[in-house]
Amino acid sequence: MTQLNVPLEPNEEQRAQLHDAVMAFAERFVAARASAPASSSTADDTRLRRLLTPPGERARPLDRVLEDFADALDTGFDTTSPGFLSYIPSGGIYTSALAGFLGAVTNRYTGGSHASPGCVAMEESVIRWMTSLFGLPETAGGVLLSGGSIANLTAVVTARSRFGEDFRRGVIYASTAAHHSLSKSARIAGIAADRVRRVPTTSQLTIDVDALRAAIAADRAAGLRPMMIVSNAGTTDTGSIDPIAECATVAKSQGAWHHVDAAYGGFFQLTVRGRERLESISLADSITIDAHKSLFLPFGIGGLLVRDRSTLAEAHEGRGSYMQDVAAGELPHYFSMGPELTRPNRGLAVWLPLQIHGIAPFREALDHMLDLAEWAAEQISAMPEFELVCECELSVVAFRAVAGDAESRRIFEAVNATRELHLSSTTVDGHFVLRLAFLSQRTDMCVARRAVELLGRISASA
Ligand SMILES: *Cc1c(COP(=O)(O)O)cnc(C)c1O
Q1: What's the burial of 24, exposed, middle or buried (CB within 10 Å: 0-12/13-18/19+)?
Q2: pLDDT tens digits, residue range 160-189?
Q3: Which residues have CB under 6 Å of ligand 1?
Q4: What is the pTM of this model?
């Protein structure tokens, strides 16, 4: 056991020791991923009780500390396994992990551009790349946030802010398939539950635009006003894409804010197929993106892009006297564009991988995810035991057993019990639905084939 007596500011030798141990740990971890099971087999009880022990006054040997972390990693499911197909996966690419390390070591303040104009310029370069990817105009801007939930909250606050105190009469419309963070955001933003409409969906699980129009008319008749219309650019459950152009037209004619939740689907815009399917996303007033989903980055990096960057500042500007010497500059102050003041250097975590790899490998990886989902959807729809719940538009295949919910659930549990794959389920139209979500740089055709094979074998064993 190496007992390091490391001060808060380690010297070169101590840094080297720390670095060697941590890098060896990371190396073992990454090298084992290709064959890593998708979930843990161990019972967690005693382990969790031990991990819940509060830190002590005295240092512990580094090996022991890292062993604890390894123990913690061997619980639950493994989001970095190639067989992890649950929820919206995110493998977390290595170069972004390195950026996380460099960002923390250099610990530059990127809340305002006065403190580190260079790092803010790098982050702005990433924002500009994103706004141009989505075809937003020159006036566009945005802010990187911790994820899609906070991005949706920031969008809701921005839409509400345009209504001033009249927001009490303003209504938010989103389909029943929209992410729950939208209702949650409305609640956090002080918008009453009876000002949020969940609009029914079509058989393809996209917003029913006639129902949307009808809901707006009914609200107008009751003296209310449409404040925000949400389009899904890839729902979490099934990857369904709302008719964005039609929603944009309704929003425009009603004077409502048009928000597109592209937390999952956004970066498929890099591919030809994605660009076709996300057509008209450039009409949005705001777009939620999650780089920790469709850009394969580690957790903690999402963002909100807006058509007119001044709208964010109008909704989020706020100063304390301790900020009196912070002048406005050419580059933005992100603290004026969202709820956060101090934040990690998220720009670097996006910038470094894009610089090191170039954009092409991201496009290829996303194309590959579309291929895997397309292939799996074809195979599953050809099996008499299963039916797809809707067309597969992005990289989620949602399906159920023809024999009914009990059978769907049995198959779901049996697949996860193999630990080779990990699936999550959902409910669509009151039915238990299984999903295969392809969105990890480690997931390949072998995994897709194995998924289809397992489904066939398990359903035959009924
Ligand atoms: C994942 C997701 C969110 C929430 O994003 P987090 O990064 O998990 O907070 C919002 N909307 C959609 C469509 C999502 O898939």
Answers
A1: exposed
A2: 999 999 999 999 999 999 999 999 999 999
A3: 88, 147-149, 152, 179, 181, 236, 261, 263-264, 290, 302
A4: 0.98
